[in-house]
Design a protein that fits this description.
alpha+beta, Beta-Lactamase, 7-stranded antiparallel sheet, 31 helices, 27% strand
Length: 922
Amino acid sequence: MEDKLHAAALAVSSAEGEQVYEDLVAALARILGVEFATIAVYEEPERSQLRTLARSAGGRLLGSISYPIAGTPCEKAIGRAFGYFPENVRAQFAKDAPLQELGIEGYAAATLNDAGGAPIGLLSVMSRRPLANPQLIEAMLKIFAARIASEIERRRAEQVLRASESQYRAMFDAAADSLVLRDAEYRVVDVNPAFLSRTGLRREDLIGMDGLIVIPQTHRERLFALHQRAIAGEPIQFEAPATVPGGTRIEVEVRGVPMMHQGRPHVLYVGRDITERKAQEARLRNSEEQYRAIFDATTDALVLRDAEFRIVDVNPAYEALSGNRREEVLGKQALTMRDPAKNPDRREVHKRALAGESVLLETEAVRKDGGAFLLEVHAVPMDYKGKPHVLYIGRDITERKAQEERLRANEEQYSAIFNAIDEALVLRDAEFRIVDVNRAYETMSGYARAEVIGEYGLTFSAPENREHRLALHRRALAGEQVQFEVNGRSKDGRDFMVEVRLVPIQYQGKPHVLQIGQEVTARRAAEGERVQLEVQLRQAQKMEAIGHLTGGIAHDFNNILQGILGNLALAAERQAELADARLGRYLERAQHSAQRARELIGQMLTFSRGQRGARRPVAMSDLVRDACKLLRSTLPSTIDLRLSLEEAMPAMEVDPVQVEQVVLNLCINARDAMGGTGAIRIGLKPPARIQAVCASCRQKVNGRFVELYVRDTGPGIPPQVMDRMFEPFFSTKETGRGSGMGLSLAHGIVHEHGGHILVDSLANERTKFRVLLPAPESGAAEAAPADDPTQPPVRARARLSGRVLVADDEEVIREFMAELLGSWGLEVTVCPDGAAARDAVQADPQHYDLVITDQTMPQLTGIELARELARLRPGLPVILYTGYAEDLSPRELREAGIAKLMRKPIEPAQFFPLLAGLLPAR
């Protein structure tokens, strides 16, 4: 084992140059007598794979590969000081294919750690035979791992030292400390803004100066000697007096950091004003009271030692930094944070400080919990209680050192971060020239980086926006953060929306603006869609609420109309007996007007409940022409009415009465809007595809429609009226000149037919209502002749016989039904509600031959009454009549035992034969 350790020491000490990794794995495999040895490091940033730096297999060196960690022995070994699997490796890691192929039996590895102790890779050996002597293998792996880790760190440090000029400049100017860069001849090469600000000097006056700037010239020889040591690669540090603007003298602490700049050795001097610290040290030597106040208040860690190196006092900052309590360390002569092995001259330093010299050193330190950090220690001689002591001032400089390392970061690091950001980045200089773009920008815009670098124009925004963008650019250069949205177009013609933020930054020592773009096309579309849906929902809710109100009014009017039509029917029968021709004409006219009122109620129900009218194939041109004949008599001669109808059109399945009503309502509105003077144009266009938004329901329209339009020369419709004009009872006319139902009925009729309404209105010019009805499919039915909507007067009829129970909560309807049915020979009993009707049948179930009931009644509805009667007397015929027939399904009527459903108001001419069919023959 001694021979092998000697061979290992020789191998690690002699390996150097570009082949150092290959030489080390070959030597390790040879010393341990194994077939395979590998050096591998993490692949960043995921760290799920290892990439080999060198591989030895059977005495041969192999090329670099990458392989996943999961499922391999590496997964168990990495992070541990020593991983050891002496045999049966293939059985333990059955999913590792290379192990199976190579026939590996034994495996061992040591983790490669960076200077901070974090794992960066793995050194492993493998053998086709079981591994023996774990102590030897562990020692070998750790010896070689230490050498390999240091080599990795050294090479990484060299990469850092090769930082680019641009990154150097950005960090150099951003540093808060005063920085002065000098070359080997001590000439000033560069100074940062912080130095110029503190000294009041100008950069152009300093560049090339080979003397001292603010430090007295009497220090030149000593500082020049220190400079030569730093040029040779040794960090230096010193303190000296300095003079700042106004003649003020201060004390400065200066660190000289050797670095390569533009391929040549330079020294970066980092200066800090330590006047206050020096004054504090002086005050500490004055009195015990002053010493204690400052001692405990200072943020630096303080340790006071006597001449024998015993700890006399520590401050709270020391306790926080070290993790040791004051009572634990008082009286100790050992070091409490520094490693004695790395500080063998600690007693010598103490003696120098006791002799009056101020000593400064940097070292590695460890807290009580094991945490490592870099410690700067300043040993200051002082008298305490009349005896010589040394005050050790400690400061954690880990972050400061890290900042110095970041100052040396290279351009590759900048590019990696720049290109890793998901948002599109464009860096422009003060003249608006593009300096850099990232990959996200290339993806969004479609332009390659090489196409846009150096361009002054806009790359995916309209050229006419350039002046506005230049103004925003100047605001950002002045220090303002600007945000805006712009419509963009990619190189391949794709349109999108971008949210852009302009951030002022310093790049290579000059002001630039970083444009950060994020595509928000989908987000803005979703927001627009949400707003549109909210508008549609509010419109639907409003129309639904208004529909319920309209339906209630129509229901009440239906009951009133039932009494009117019923009594007209009774009068017509009596007139037939009297044979009074003049009275017959009067009754027919009243009957015709009542029928028109009935149709109007049907239209109101169409609006409120979607009730379907009686549809049949109709020639639309003939229908519109007939409506205009009726309309002509209502228009003054000062209105010019003209038609433009497409004659060659297939018949359409519509309710002609309802469509006629739409035409009349739109034309009457046009007449009133023009004040009785102007022109109305009515047109009919053949089927065509139309895309728009409905003016009444706010839904999107997309399909083939036949267009019926009414255009006037009126003053147009104001926007505030446009939003409400389809609401029932909303009107801009004077009181008594309109009900406000015209457009609401048109809305209900058109949408019940599956259509929509579009409105084009120009202020002080015209208004055009476009009624869109679904285009008929090919092979539509021929137009059928129109039916006469009025019923002929009922003549004297044959008499019926039987006992009928009528239930209705409207007194006028009960009276009408009693008189009508009694005139037909029936024995009639009337009840004011469903409960009274149920009680009447329950009292004598066999007494009645037929029950006629309304649907909407208090206590019991007509359906509920029918169910009760079916229980009391199965088979008793029940007729249900209502204005809300659409609310009742055939199944519901069948299950309740309803024999027939009639709509209000009932027609005696239809009602008589129905009763005759349901009453028993006598």
